């Protein structure tokens, strides 16, 4: 009799676990939105994060990936608003995509803010990011878990080798939906064009658009050389961060223990993301037919001078205290 009671009690514990999770307010599935699709390090990082969370919480927290911003019909600038409305539970992405909702999210797109990996590492370890910027994210309704490097966003085109700012003049360049990046293109006398990635592929293939900005690993993953975009310029104007966020109300439904497990999983995924982003890709670029040009120090100085007015304009309109702290962290890294 005692043995039978013990077996029944054990079975009740197992069967009762899902009910206990539901009673705590846990969902059966958490919707994770990201802009990119499979094949990119960004997607792999989100996938790795979701897997680590599932394993470390023993299945209590299951995240399902929704790539290509599919939860907002591809409108990546609407992700944060959708999170606030409860449509999205988790975000893995760059804050510039949500800058239309929170202007200060434009900060990390400032041209030449983080010119090299030392600068990125300094920012990732700084209070400017982990305290000041994360507080901005929390006020926007999300809980920041971790951040990793996105990688330099380079300039690609189908027309000609671009070495200096004057070479961009007149080219129609697809950009993300942010006024700052459009201001950069206008400063270079290019023609910035905003469109979804699906529309961009057709426009690039037909020649209706001359070029675009992408990280090199994304250029490889999307095989944009097949769209004629074979000329690559390592201008290193932009280098963003990818952030792992959970909707504030959702995060609060988890136990403190699970909150810690999820945060640790995000940090591990962010570290691996940064490591993957920094892997050399030159050989693969050549194999896919890309022609890569690295501007000289003199030419980089020209690029910096050309976009500096944009930097000054946007710094004045954003959180100058935060940007000053980021600049200080970068300067100390040098």
Automatic annotation (TrEMBL):
InterPro entries recorded: DctP_fam, TRAP_DctP_sf
Family annotation (Gene3D superfamilies): Bacterial extracellular solute-binding protein, family 7
Entry keywords, A to Z: Signal
Family annotation (Pfam families): DctP
PANTHER family found in the cross-reference section: EXTRACYTOPLASMIC SOLUTE RECEPTOR PROTEIN, PTHR33376
Protein name as catalogued: Exported protein
């Amino acid at each position: 009799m005692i043995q039978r009671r013990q077996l029944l009690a054990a079975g009740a514990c197992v069967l009762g676990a899902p009910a206990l999770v539901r009673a705590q307010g846990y969902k059966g599935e958490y919707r994770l939105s990201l802009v990119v699709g499979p094949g990119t390090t960004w997607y792999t990082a989100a996938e790795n994060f979701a897997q680590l969370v599932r394993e470390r919480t023993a299945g209590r927290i299951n995240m399902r990936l929704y790539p290509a911003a599919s939860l907002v019909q591809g409108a990546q600038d609407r992700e944060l608003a959708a999170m606030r409305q409860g449509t999205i539970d988790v975000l893995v992405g760059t804050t510039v995509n949500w800058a239309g909702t929170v202007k200060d999210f434009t900060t990390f797109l400032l041209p030449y803010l983080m010119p090299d990996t030392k600068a990125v590492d300094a920012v990732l370890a700084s209070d400017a990011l982990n305290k000041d910027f994360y507080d901005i994210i929390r006020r926007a309704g999300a809980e920041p878990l971790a951040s990793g490097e996105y990688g330099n966003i380079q300039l690609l085109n189908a027309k000609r080798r671009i070495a200096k700012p004057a070479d961009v003049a007149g080219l129609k360049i697809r950009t993300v939906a942010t006024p700052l990046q459009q201001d950069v293109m206008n400063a270079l006398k290019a023609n910035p064009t905003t469109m979804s990635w699906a529309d961009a592929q057709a426009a690039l293939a037909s020649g209706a658009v001359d070029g675009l900005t992408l990280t090199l690993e994304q250029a490889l993953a999307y095989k944009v050389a097949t769209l004629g975009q074979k000329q690559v310029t390592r201008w290193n104007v932009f280098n963003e961060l990818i952030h792992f966020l959970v909707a504030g109300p959702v995060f609060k439904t988890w136990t403190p223990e699970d909150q810690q497990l999820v945060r640790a999983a995000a940090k591990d995924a962010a570290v691996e993301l940064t490591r993957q982003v920094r892997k050399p890709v030159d050989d693969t670029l050549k194999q896919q037919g890309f022609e890569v040009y690295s501007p000289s120090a003199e030419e980089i100085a020209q690029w910096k001078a050309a976009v500096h007015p944009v930097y000054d304009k946007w710094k004045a309109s954003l959180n100058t205290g935060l940007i000053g702290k980021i600049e200080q962290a970068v300067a100390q890294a040098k």
